[in-house]
Here is the input.
Amino acid sequence: MIKAILTDIEGTITRISFVKEVLFPYAAKQLATFMRLNENKAHVAEQIAALKAIINEPDADIESVISVLLKWIEEDKKITPLKQIQGLIWQTGYEQADFKGHLYPDAFEFLQAQHAQGTALYVYSSGSVRAQQLLFKYSDYGDIRALFSDFFDTKVGAKQEQAAYNTIVNQLPFSANEILFLSDVASELDAAKAAGLKTLHLIRDGQALSEHPYVHDFSTVKLEQFV
Here is the structure.
C-alpha cells in the first residue's frame, strides 16, 4: 500500500519549458551582478567555497567563479553550489512577480487530492530546497507549500544514484515499498526502483517508454495499482 509520494518537479509536475525558458535565463541574466554584490555574504560565500573546491581552484577570483557558474547553467549541470545560487536569484524574481511557479493543472489536482486523503507528499529535485519552496510559495495556485511534508535536493545525492533514495527513505517514517516516486526521467526511476521504491513514469513531452508504469497525466492514476 502506498503511504507516501516522492515527486520530481521539472517535467513531472511542471512544464520543462518553465525551467528552460524562464528560470534558467533569468538566473543567467542576473547572476554576474548578484555574485559581485553578494560574494561576501555568508550564504553566498559558502557556495563560492564549495565551487572552488569542486574545480580545485582555491584562489579563483569572483569573475572566474561567475564564468564557471554561467558555463554550468549553459550545460545544465546538477551541481549543488549552482543550484543553491540559482535559488537565491530566483527568490528575487518570485518576490518581484517577474514570474510565477508553473504547475500542470492535473498535477496540482492530484497532489491536492492525495494530501486530502492523507498521503504524505515529498519533493526531490535537483533544484535547491530554497528554489522548490519558492516555486510552491509563488505558484499559479498560490502558496501550496503546506501540501508537502518535506523537501530534498542534491545534498542527499544525485538523482540517478540509488544511494540518494536510500538516504531519503532513511529520513522518512515509511518503508521503501510504501513510497511512490514520480519522475519523467527513466534513469532516476531506475535508481529509485533499485532502492525499493515504487515508480511511475510521467511521459508528457515525448520521452521514450521505459520498463516503469507510465501515464501521460495524473487524471488516471490510482495508488491502488501499485502493490
Summary: The radius of gyration is 18 Å. The chain has a mean pLDDT of 95. Strands lie at 4-7, 120-124, 150-152, 179-183, 198-202, 214-215. The helical segments are 16-38, 42-55, 62-74, 80-95, 105-116, 129-137, 162-171, 186-194.
